[in-house]
């Protein structure tokens, strides 16, 4: 898999509150919640796959977790409407 970081979007539809909390807790450690059941993070596809598998162990029958990868070419076509803070753009920085 690619070692290039991409914007990864994790979305879930989970019926039971307890399972929803467990999945959210896993995702919150590595991603930013942008809606009640949607998280975004910059990471490699392989890291996103590991995170999704870690979260998916908490799914029950009828639940779903989806992961979408947005490449650098796709980022300019993304938009946020209404409330919410967009994920910060990649920036170079200096350590002093």
UniProtKB/TrEMBL annotation:
Which cofactor is recorded for it?
Mg(2+)
GO MF entries: hydrolase activity; metal ion binding; RNA endonuclease activity
**Keywords for the protein's UniProt record, in alphabetical order:** Antiviral defense, Endonuclease, Hydrolase, Magnesium, Metal-binding, Nuclease
Q: What is the enzyme's main class?
A: hydrolase
Which SUPFAM superfamilies does the annotation name?
Answer: TTP0101/SSO1404-like (SSF143430)
Positions annotated to bind Mg(2+):
13
Q: Which Pfam families match?
A: CRISPR_Cas2 (PF09827)
Residues making up the signal peptide according to the UniProt record = none
EC number in record: 3.1.-.-
- Role: CRISPR (clustered regularly interspaced short palindromic repeat), is an adaptive immune system that provides protection against mobile genetic elements (viruses, transposable elements and conjugative plasmids). CRISPR clusters contain sequences complementary to antecedent mobile elements and target invading nucleic acids. CRISPR clusters are transcribed and processed into CRISPR RNA (crRNA). Functions as a ssRNA-specific endoribonuclease. Involved in the integration of spacer DNA into the CRISPR cassette.
Indicate the family of this protein.
Belongs to the CRISPR-associated endoribonuclease Cas2 protein family.
This protein's name:
CRISPR-associated endoribonuclease Cas2
